[in-house]
Amino acid sequence: MRRDHAEEVAGEVHEHDLGLAHDLPVLARRRMIRLVAGMGLVPLVGCTSQDGTSAAPSAEGSAGPSSSAECAAIPDETAGPFPGDGSNGVNVLKESGVVRSDVTKSFGDSAGGTAEGVPLTVTLTVVDAASGCGTPKKGAAVYLWHCDREGNYSLYSDGVTDENYLRGVQETDDKGEVTFKSVFPGCYQGRWPHIHFEVYGSLADATAATSITNTSQLAFPKDVCDTVYASDGYAASVRNLSGLSLETDGIFSDGYDQQMATLKGSVAEGYTATLTVPV
């Protein structure tokens, strides 16, 4: 299910969807899940160990599959107004070249630009929620996209409508993993820094832009955002982030534990972001 709200990009308000009236049912549903979880009827977090404790990342910060007996699917979120999957205009998924791990450059008949910014490697591990997060989803596919350092979305935002960088599809391997080479996204007005992604049952489904199984978003921790945005090229992000919090964000305000990525690295060497995605 896609959830709607209005977001702002590069200082201008863009109608990302249909507004608060459409947000409330999903917000209420997710809050009810958390309420019931508090009563001990369903698990509150995405993956829990058999003794009921939260499954923590490994010492390397990896978000690999857990051997837990209980697991909740990643929360459904809006794809926003700039998905590029055919649901709002342009469809990049059917273009030759979209299946790639390096999404920093535009491809095909685009303008051929390159997204600038602090290097970021994103690894998502797709696991089967019904198995308690213990079974990797081999042969699934993930379509990932996000804004650039300036807060613009390729294919849609003024100045980059002829670009298609920061968009790509990967098929999950034996471990359920996909890895994308990208850049750290900027922060635009009204939204906490994030990455969009869609999960498909197969690569064929993804490149046909059909049968999405899950749509969600990855969130970034504030301390890393502060560090990255202090570097060259992210000045607008410093201003925009100063007026935001995860608790007031239109998407993450009702909970973000399952969507908060584990970050390692530095501005000089680049960062890695990892997240387990139960589906």
Describe the structure.
The protein is α+β, with helices and mostly antiparallel strands and 279 residues long. It is 14% helix and 24% strand. The protein has helices at residues 20-38, 203-207, 222-229, 235-242, and strands at 7-9, 12-14, 47-48, 70-71, 119-128, 135-136, 141-145, 167-171, 177-183, 194-200, 212-219, 262-266, 270-278. Strands 5, 6, 9, 12 and 13 form a five-stranded mixed β-sheet that branches. A hairpin with a 2-residue loop joins strand 1 and strand 2. Residues 1-69 have low confidence and may be disordered.
Q: State the assembly state of the protein chains.
A: single chain
pLDDT averaged residue by residue:
83
How many E-type strands? 13
One letter per element, helices H and strands E, the order comes to EEHEEEEEEEEHEHHEE
Short description:
This protein has 279 residues and is an alpha+beta fold. Helix content is 14%, strand content 24%.
Please supply descriptive tags for the structure shown above.
single chain; 279 residues; alpha+beta; 4 helices
